[in-house]
Amino acid sequence: GPAHLFRLAGKCFSFVESTYKYEFCPFHNVTQHEQTFRWNAYSGILGIWHEWEIDNNTFVGMWMREGDSCETKSRQTKVHLVCGKSNKLAYVSEPSTCVYSLTFETPLVCHPHSLLVYPTLTEALQRKWDEAEQLLYDELITDQGYKKILKEIFEEAGLLKATEENEVENQSKKTTLEFETVEKCSKEYKQLSEEIKKLRILLGQHGIAYKENSGE
């Protein structure tokens, strides 16, 4: 990620809300400590540094995953990085069960170019990105194909990790037949047409009437 943010490594920032104290240690973890005198007061990990959240080719936050178990899954936290006068944890919420949202203010992200992904990449990965831009411009790949190449670049750079969620998403994309190139789409269409022909012959051999679909 952005080298100038590494100066936050080794530091921790806390935020107290109600009876809970939250602590965010960039590039390390997020913890929660219940500030009560109960014998079983909760103290645990809400997530360990995992990967970046990238939107519109910009670093927008940090994902802390694989925290303490919570029913069937692990606790996880998304830390939003916003411009502020000083480094501080400003806001904490739990938008869904065991998924937390933290807002971290820092002057390190105030410059408009401070969170761009491209400058943090190696020359080889920047070239790969440039080539993808050109392919998209020449309409040799679809927007879907372009996004897939970017995701691969980010994973290769170690900014993103292929999580189970990504795998599920990829599977669903396969089932909805989204194609990276027009060529792949044509190829898939040809294969499906061949399969339909074979199925029609098979139905005919068994004396089953085939009802043709007008929207075929």
TrEMBL record:
Main location class? Golgi
Report domain DMAP1-binding positions.
Answer: 117-216
Short name of one Pfam family: PRKCSH
Task: Report keywords, A-Z.
Answer: Disulfide bond, Glycoprotein, Golgi apparatus, Secreted, Signal, Transferase
Keyword Disulfide bond (UniProt): yes
PROSITE patterns named in the record: DMAP1_BIND, MRH
Q: Which domain of life is it from?
A: Eukaryota
Q: Name one GO cellular component term.
A: extracellular region
Q: How does it assemble?
A: Homodimer; disulfide-linked. Hexamer of two alpha (GNPTAB), two beta (GNPTAB) and two gamma (GNPTG) subunits; disulfide-linked. The alpha and/or the beta subunits of the enzyme constitute the catalytic subunits.
User: What role does it play?
Assistant: Non-catalytic subunit of the N-acetylglucosamine-1-phosphotransferase complex, an enzyme that catalyzes the formation of mannose 6-phosphate (M6P) markers on high mannose type oligosaccharides in the Golgi apparatus. Binds and presents the high mannose glycans of the acceptor to the catalytic alpha and beta subunits (GNPTAB). Enhances the rate of N-acetylglucosamine-1-phosphate transfer to the oligosaccharides of acid hydrolase acceptors.
Q: Write the protein's name.
A: N-acetylglucosamine-1-phosphotransferase subunit gamma
